[in-house]
Amino acid sequence: MIPVICLLLVSDKVFGNVPTTEFFSYGHGAKDTILHPNDDGSSPVQNISVVFEFFSEHRKQLFVNTNGLISFRNSIRTYTPEPFPKIGVRIVLAPFWADIDTRMCGSTCSIWYRESTELVDLSKATIEIRTYFPVMKHFNAKWTYIVTWYNVPFYGAHGSEFNKRNTFQAILITDSKSAFVIYNYNKIEWIASKKIPAQVGFNIGDDIHFYSVEGSRTSQIINLPNLSNVGYPGKFVFRVDLRDIRPAPTPGDPGQCFLKAADIVVVVDMSLSIDINALKNLLSDVISELPINDMECQIAVQSFSTSAKTELRFRDQKTKTEILAHIDKMNIANGVSNLEDALSSTT
Ligand SMILES: *[C@@H]1O[C@H](CO)[C@@H](O)[C@H](O)[C@H]1NC(C)=O
Ligand SMILES: *[C@@H]1O[C@H](CO)[C@@H](O)[C@H](O)[C@H]1NC(C)=O
User: Per-residue b/e over 116-131, b at no fewer than 16 CB within 10 Å?
Assistant: First the structure.
């Protein structure tokens, strides 16, 4: 039923935003902690109760930063948004990196945060991930971290500018095996304090694992509540624990699988002339023991010798039965006579 509901919502919403009623709950009622009113400030270090996998960064701490960032190594005061990819130092989630100032807005604005394993939040996270990643149909969220920038103004806003406010939310989600981030945008009425508009996305600092929402640091970023990477205006959803950055699959295309970074790699040195039947039995034995389910492609087979290197990966969803069937066919399939060809015939 969930995908059907999703499609209905998508067709209803051609443009718009995410209503705050569809945000994860926030505020005093949700037992949030409030980030004391400040300019360029941050929360104290937040020790979290899980290891959050953010690509190669496996973090047990985070910081909520006033200027629209969640960081993992240090708090960040920098108020001028820097372009992604930013190499090295900035390991951040950037729902809206810009010069936010909450000193003057009293109770009309706030930045809220909490870790939550409350059932209501886990259920909502589970439904959203299953909706936007249909292949994750057995996903069950175990942990969430929810940060809400509510009605925040910008540094240096004078007069009527002070009435321009932004409301957005970032949610970190994990089931301890995979990790996701959701950004929800309700209202974006300003994009810059001075010259450079907000940078939106995330950045790990290796020049590979980053995402920069198109229009970042330009006037186009005002359209954020109309933009999406999942076909739902005002919403971005990312899986952030894989080797590659994968966008959420388009609705109706649940066939792709997710290859975790080297979950299982079988390396075969072909210079040792391993008998194909012995290899087949070995692989079957190993795979029979693996917790392969229909969510992920968890196996890579790599073979090499000084003269040849081949790699086999299951790029589509495969059940354990299918993988074993592939291996079973390896030695004689297509008249293959050597290991290298046998492996490549199985991809
Ligand atoms: C957070 O964890 C560190 C050690 O990892 C510890 O030194 C520190 O006291 C903890 N902080 C809080 C607020 O619990
Ligand atoms: C979203 O798109 C609609 C239709 O093009 C437009 O009227 C509206 O102003 C846009 N909203 C924002 C926040 O860009």
Answer: bebeebbebbbebbbb
Global pTM value: 0.74
Residue 233 Cα: closest atom of ligand 2: 1
- Answer yes or no: is pLDDT of 68 > 90: yes
SS3 73: coil
The yes-or-no verdict on residue 79 having pLDDT over 80 is yes
Report CA-CA distances (Å) from 311 to 241, 255, 266, 304, 317: 22, 21, 10, 8, 17
Contacts of 126 (CB under 8 A, 6+ apart): 139, 140, 141
Report how many helices (DSSP H) and strands (DSSP E) the chain contains, helices first: 5, 17
Task: Report the separation in Å between the CA atom of 267 and the middle of ligand 2, taken as the mean of its atom positions.
Answer: 53
Please tell me the residue having the least CA distance from ligand 2 atom 4: 15
The residue to which tokens 């971290």 are assigned: 145
In terms of Cα–Cα distance, which of 192, 164, 204 is closest to 70? 204
Nearest to 54 by CA among 244, 204, 208: 204
